[in-house]
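Lab meeting, item 3. Inverse folding demo.
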């Protein structure tokens, strides 16, 4: 099998059900999704096996789901069968809800960083946001699987929660943004 086809030498690329210019917003969206997936792979490699077995497993699942997102974003067939489902969005929400109590209560905005692995999670969060913005722009031009957009929205929240858990498990404090007011009042319900 050859890795090169020469079919894109004139500035277009094949997608599921058609072709687009390589700088088309659809290609930008699924290409950035692929970039995000590569960063997730790096995060998996950075996380300690003993401290983060749960998170590493989740990140590998997320890599598969990001392939699903990219596939859906690259699909322009009228009778397309999409892969990203509402259940995938719900699963992310459940993981976020599990992570929130594992980190100190949040009151102010925090700076991206802490440990190397937590900083990597913040990079994932920001690349996810970029993917989400490109997908939002694509939605204005052409129809897409709406669950992809919802998934990306929750995924950035997941990476924020994961970054905080990484710092908490590694006993590294989040750094509060020094000019932040208290913006997250009562983020956890008090036990009665």
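The presenter then showed the designed sequence:
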């Amino acid at each position: 099998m050859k890795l090169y086809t020469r079919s894109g030498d004139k500035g277009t690329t094949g997608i599921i059900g058609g072709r687009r210019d390589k700088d088309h917003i659809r290609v930008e969206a699924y290409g950035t999704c692929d970039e995000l997936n590569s960063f997730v792979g790096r995060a998996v490699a950075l996380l300690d096996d003993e401290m983060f077995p749960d998170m590493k497993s989740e990140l590998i699942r997320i890599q598969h789901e990001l392939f699903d997102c990219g596939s859906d974003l690259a699909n322009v067939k009228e009778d397309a069968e999409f892969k990203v489902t509402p259940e995938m969005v719900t699963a992310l929400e459940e993981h976020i809800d599990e992570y929130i109590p594992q980190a100190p209560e949040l009151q102010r905005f925090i700076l991206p960083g802490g440990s190397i692995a937590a900083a990597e999670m913040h990079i994932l969060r920001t690349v996810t946001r970029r993917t989400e913005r490109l997908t939002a722009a694509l939605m204005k031009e052409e129809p897409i699987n709406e669950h992809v957009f919802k998934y990306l929205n929750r995924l950035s929240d997941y990476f924020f929660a994961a970054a905080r858990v990484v710092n908490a498990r590694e006993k590294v404090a989040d750094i509060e943004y020094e000019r932040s007011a208290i913006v997250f009042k009562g983020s956890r319900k008090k036990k009665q």
